Amino acid sequence: MVDKNESSGNSIITPAQEATSQSVVKIDGGKPKPGINISNNLDPRDNLSSIADNPRTVEELMKDPNIKFALDKAGIDDPRSLSTYDFETGEMKIVSLSPAEILEIVSEQNPNGFKLDKPPKENPEQMLSWLKWRNTDLTYSKDITPKMVAKGISVVTKLGLPIEELSEAQIVMCQDMTDEQVKQLRQQRETARPDFFETIRNTPGILTEEEIGNLNRQARDYIRERKLEDDYFIPNELSQFRNQLSVDIGERFDAHGLAKGDELRILNYLLSHGISPERPFHTCPLRAENEVDIAALGAVGPYDNGAFIVLGDVDRLIDDSGIRSVLVNEQYYNAVPLLQQKFPKIDFIKASEMTTALSQLIKNKAERI
Q1: What integer pLDDT is reported at residue 65 of this predicted model?
Q2: What pTM, to 2 d.p., does this model score?
Q3: SS3 content of the chain, % helix, strand, coil (to 5)
Q4: Taking Cα atoms as reference points, which of 276, 293, 272 lies closest to residue 346?
Q5: For a Cys-Cys bond, which of 54, 79, 282, 323 suits 97, CB 3.0-4.6 Å?
């Protein structure tokens, strides 16, 4: 390395060049990998001007919410105190990432330099990429096209809704909406009671925002770890074990599956405040006979591709008994102890234990009669 004290013009190493000459720890899902050398001629900030304006220190970098978000996606809570594996000694060490290393990771997590507060809604193709990047807990099928995204943006903008978490279901729903329908919905929003999801966001529940954030982060970490093992992994134990459940058991429980999105916050609201009689709450048997045969009619049981299915008491409708049990998908298994502590009157059942637990609830009711 050239002496930094040399006075000849081209031999002086700038702080940026010095930072980029270090060995970079590549982070993927929180798992350290062997370092690689970044060329002195490459400043990773060149392609990140929209994310950070020539930051010089880790502290300055961490003030940017985009940096924090990208690091969180990479499984890094604090780049100043990161456990990494030393391949020479075979030991775990605590390291502190340099600004160059942080920006290298950010560039991998956000290669297009998207900003959280400025979705590229003028460019539907970029907007679809932004949505996929931003909403790591939502999925977008290959059938969703930029043209469909453009229509979705147009509709939700006219309705005065935020586009930051535009889901696949919303995009599909918007496709056939006419201007007159959009106008009517807009009028309803302006005159009717607050939007349900707005109410949920603004109404405190028994779980605190910090607890919800921590549990959601653990769920994302679980999915991220599993995807490292299998690129095609999706958390599907809830669907898998529901389909294995006998009809004799399943038909005795009234059920409602929470759709993908902000499921934990919705669950917290429902368990804290109950089901609103002013809002439709569609239910059906947890498992019914001939589900495959009647699928064409749209009756295929409760939605089971999300994180939770709520159940009523044995042989009672949820509208009558309220929510008495919650089936939990695998990414939230670690949340069960805290949920059980916060809501002691509710039975939280891991999907993998569905048959055993529901059979016991049926047995307990028979013994009470």
Answers
A1: 80
A2: 0.50
A3: 45, 10, 45
A4: 272
A5: 79
